[in-house]
Amino acid sequence: MLVLTRKPNESLMVGDDIEIQILGIEGDQVKLGIKAPKYIDIHRKEIYLSIQQENNQAANTSLSNNLLESLKSLKKQ
């Protein structure tokens, strides 16, 4: 893990096109501003993990498993 020290209004760059700026520090909270291309999804980690879990559950439903088996049987024909 890379650890950097930044002050309010200072930034850091991730690659060539993602900028993370420290907007302010209030108590134990840090406010961040993120500039990134629209095609890059940005989520809080707990939301990201929830999306991943829902995607995994959807991929493992009986409907998707039945569809996958049906497609496999069509390929064998």
Automatic annotation (TrEMBL):
The keyword RNA-binding applies. InterPro entries: CsrA, CsrA_sf. Homodimer; the beta-strands of each monomer intercalate to form a hydrophobic core, while the alpha-helices form wings that extend away from the core. Pfam families: CsrA (PF02599). Its main location: cytoplasm. The gene is csrA. Belongs to the CsrA/RsmA family. A translational regulator that binds mRNA to regulate translation initiation and/or mRNA stability. Usually binds in the 5'-UTR at or near the Shine-Dalgarno sequence preventing ribosome-binding, thus repressing translation. Its main target seems to be the major flagellin gene, while its function is anatagonized by FliW. SUPFAM superfamilies: CsrA-like. The keyword Transmembrane does not apply. This is Translational regulator CsrA. NCBIfam families: csrA (TIGR00202), PRK01712.1 (NF002469). Keywords: Bacterial flagellum biogenesis, Cytoplasm, Repressor, RNA-binding, Translation regulation. It is found in: Cytoplasm.
